[in-house]
Amino acid sequence: MNAISQKHDHFFFSAMGNPKLALSFFKTHVPAKILSKCDLSTLKMFDTKLIRSDLKKRELDVIYKMQLRDGKEAYFYVLCEHQSNYDKTMILRLREYMYLLINKHMELNNTSKPPIIFPMVLYAGSTRWHGPRNFFKLYDEHEELAKEIAMSPFHLIDVQSMDDDDFKKQELAGLMSFLMKYKKVKDMHDYFQKLKPMLKIVEIDESSNLSKVVLTYLYDNLETEQAQEFTKMAQEQLSGEVRQKAMTLGEGIRLMGVEEGRQEGRQEGLQKGLQKGRIKALHEVAHNLLRLGRGIDEVVAVTNLSRNEVMDIQLELSK
Predict the structure, then answer these.
(1) Contact at 8 Å (CB) between 79 and 120?
(2) Tens-place pLDDT, residues 269-307
(3) How far apart are CA 81 and CA 103, in angstroms?
């Protein structure tokens, strides 16, 4: 920031810091309809550093807090712009600062209700302002679409309100939603029968390694006994890559997870034990496959271990 900018900024900040001048400014420039809802006797300057401590310090925005006629708090936000050329994205900066103010207000008042904020820009550039003042004007030919999306309620995908049969129709998206809906499983048999046809979908594009993502999340959400039951069902009723990976994860739980988790006596210890069991089991599987002469790439694909981990195991075998 150069000396000239500092001079202008300091003047604006100092002048607007004067309560009488600030009151005159707001009475002059705020629309009468909005002023009628404000109790101007409660005007008080708000420290902008509270909302912009993480941004570059600039003395060109001023915030005044007040009460509305109904007693709720509201703000006047004034941003001063005196650059030679106007900023075409000013509306974005203004919105960013307003969102920061909303968050700070909710934090300070321990509320989830956002305050009313009336934003203003005091432009003192060398030319007249010709930039957009409406956020949606930035979208050009997509203005109406942007407005429609922004002004509509956000699109909600509530998995708890969705029927289980709908998940099957949604293919891969349905599989993800199904798993997130049933993070806690009560009836493993019913759960498995609903999940089984959707698990077969991940075989379509195994190059994405989606089966690993799905099965890892699934096992992480199951209790120990449920994980063992799922592994048994997977062995009997699944096939291909999904079955093989389910076996690998299930074997990890059998080897170490259950015993170590029970010894810990609490859920945190159980989860650590399960994870250690999975890792040890994967290493044992990799060890056996390498001894049978399988290639490193194949072992990586089967176990989902990293290439470096498999190479380390191969190195141990060669000693």
Answers:
(1) yes
(2) 556 655 666 777 778 878 877 877 778 888 787 778 888
(3) 24
